[in-house]
Structure formats: C-alpha cells, structure tokens
TrEMBL record:
<dbReference type="InterPro" id="IPR017871">
    <property type="entry name" value="ABC_transporter-like_CS"/>
</dbReference>
<dbReference type="InterPro" id="IPR027417">
    <property type="entry name" value="P-loop_NTPase"/>
</dbReference>
<dbReference type="GO" id="GO:0005524">
    <property type="term" value="F:ATP binding"/>
</dbReference>
<dbReference type="InterPro" id="IPR003593">
    <property type="entry name" value="AAA+_ATPase"/>
</dbReference>
<feature type="domain" description="ABC transporter">
    <location>
        <begin position="2"/>
        <end position="214"/>
    </location>
</feature>
<protein>
    <submittedName>
        <fullName>ATP-binding cassette domain-containing protein</fullName>
    </submittedName>
</protein>
<dbReference type="Pfam" id="PF00005">
    <property type="entry name" value="ABC_tran"/>
</dbReference>
<keyword id="KW-1003">Cell membrane</keyword>
<keyword id="KW-0472">Membrane</keyword>
<dbReference type="InterPro" id="IPR015854">
    <property type="entry name" value="ABC_transpr_LolD-like"/>
</dbReference>
<keyword id="KW-0547">Nucleotide-binding</keyword>
<keyword id="KW-0067">ATP-binding</keyword>
<dbReference type="InterPro" id="IPR003439">
    <property type="entry name" value="ABC_transporter-like_ATP-bd"/>
</dbReference>
Length: 215
C-alpha cells in the first residue's frame, strides 16, 4: 500500500529527514516515533503531498506522491487521505455536523450526509451534531476531527501527535476508534507520536533517529 524509497528532505541545506526503505501494508497501522525535531511532521507532510521531498519516492497504492504538486496533489489528497492534527481545528461557529461536511465540500467530493451522521454516531458524538463546535471538550473535538477525516473514506489516515492533549481515557478511546475505523475499511493508519501510552497499540513502528546536530 505504502512504499517509501530513498526519501530525503532538506531545509536551508540541512537534511532533516532520511528514510531509505519503509513499507506498510494496506489496512495495517504504524506509529512513527522519534525525538522532537527528528522529522515526524515533515514525513507526514510529504506523505500527504503537502510538500515535495528533496529526493526519493513515496508510492501510495501505485501513485508516486513525491511527484505530485499543485492541483493534482490537492485532488489526490482530497480523495485518498484523512488527517487528524494535534490541535483539533474546527470552525467554532459552525455545528459539529457542518464542520464534518465542510471537509468534503472543500475537497470537492460529493457530501454524504447519511455517512456523516453514521460516523458521528459510531464515534459517540451524534448527540452533539447540532451543537456549535466552540462548545465541545478537547476529547469531543478530537472525535469530530476524526469523523471529518473519515468522511471521504480515505485509504490513508494520518495523525500528528493526536493524543498529546488528552487524558488517559480520551487517549485510549481515540486510539481504538482510529484503529477500528481503519481496520473496518482496510485503510492504512500512520500516527506520529512521542506518547508512550499508545506505542504498543500499532502493528508496526518506525523509529526516526535524533537530528544529527541535536545537543
Ligand atoms: N518549513 C520549515 N523550514 C525550515 N525548517 C523546518 C521546516 N519544517 C521543519 N523544519 C525543521 O525540520 C526538522 C524536523 O522538524 P519536524 O518534522 O517538525 O520534527 P518533529 O515533528 O519530529 O518534531 C526540525 O529541525 C525543524 O526545525
Ligand atoms: Mg511534529
């Protein structure tokens, strides 16, 4: 499903990520660990074609994402990738349901209201569907962000430090929801984290080394 070969990324002439070979099968999960500055977020940005690498290939179901840019990258991302961020950004004045549907509109994908409702139900937040997003707890917001990420049936779900701000209960709940949702549809789950609580939950692990100039 995912096959990364000879990948490097550099900023200001400094190599910030080097990954010779990495594979994750469809429907499997992998956590990406490593100290701060080791390139976890950089790697996720490359995987969803937000940036192009300095060199190397990123094959996602046969598409070389490392070669995509502009509108082709936007189209591919909209149809293939769901993203869960560390800080769950929602539009505060829109309702939960509106926030979930907005992602599909932005990606120019047909909006499936029934699927949005069923995802909110599945993630235990259907009672909040018509509540403004500004009135949710952090754990509730994360689940709404997950529903939004899953709406367009992504083949790849990416999460960057999704549990950093969550207590143990909300952390365990969010992880099992991400793992179960991906397993159900055969999507691949990649989670960048330095949260020791969640590392054992994944099928495999990619450990990025500390940056060379770290003190
Ligand atoms: N847009 C950028 N411009 C310059 N340097 C960057 C940029 N993005 C990331 N970096 C650098 O790349 C390295 C890896 O950062 P990052 O991917 O955020 O690591 P992590 O997520 O593991 O903490 C860091 O040294 C960071 O300063
Ligand atoms: Mg990061």
């Amino acid at each position: 499903m995912l096959h990364v070969k000879s990948l490097t990324q550099a900023h200001d002439g400094r190599v910030v990520l080097q990954l010779d070979h990495w594979q994750v099968a469809a429907g499997r999960s992998c956590c990406i660990t490593g100290p701060s500055g080791s390139g976890k977020t950089t790697l996720l940005d490359l995987l969803c074609a937000l940036r192009r690498p300095a060199s190397g290939d990123i094959l996602v179901e046969g598409v070389n994402v490392a070669r995509l840019s502009g509108r082709a990258a936007d189209r591919w991302r909209g149809s293939t990738v769901g993203v869960v961020t560390q800080t769950p950004h929602l539009l505060e004045i829109l309702t939960v349901q509106e926030n979930v549907m907005l992602a599909a509109r932005m990606a120019r994908v047909a909006v499936d209201g029934a699927r949005a409702a069923s995802l909110l139900d599945r993630l235990g937040v259907s009672a909040l569907a018509s509540r403004p997003a500004g009135r949710l707890s952090q754990g509730q917001r994360q689940r709404v962000v997950l529903a939004r990420a899953l709406l367009c049936r992504p083949r790849l779900l990416l999460a960057d430090e999704p549990t950093a701000h969550l207590d143990d209960a909300a952390c365990a709940q969010l992880c099992s929801l991400m793992l179960e949702s991906c397993r159900e549809v055969g999507a691949t789950l990649l989670v960048a984290t330095h949260d020791r609580r969640i590392e054992p939950l994944f099928d495999q692990r990619l450990s990025l080394p500390a940056p060379e100039n770290a003190t």
